[in-house]
Task: structure prediction
Amino acid sequence: MAGKLGGGSDEPMTEINIVPFVDIVLVVLIIFMVTATYIVSPSIKVNLPEAATGENVESSSLGITVAADGSLFLDGAPVTEDGLRAAVRAAKAEKADVVCLIAGDKDARHGDVTHVIDVVKQEGVAKFAINIDPPAVAAPATP
Result:
């Protein structure tokens, strides 16, 4: 039974009231949800080219960025070609089906992006995607 105020009962209270606990958890959850949107931001600003036929990639195990000056980044950290090869090998050893998402700056040389694709394919990655921005204006439908 629930405890009574001033009822004179000498029985100890054996139930725990969890309502204050639930209130605190909900407040913490709301705070987390609001602040999470401000924490997430792209680490490297890349001016991606636009393409109307792009598709979303569900998940990528390696994110490779080619900057306008040709420098390489792996998951936001600067990397050399040898470091990229080593990271791809390590990812292949950990997981057989590795997917690479390659983001090349619009002003990057075509040869630099092609070279990264070649490096990834030489290391045995069969699945890769090119990161793009969708166009601001939808492309006209083809008949």
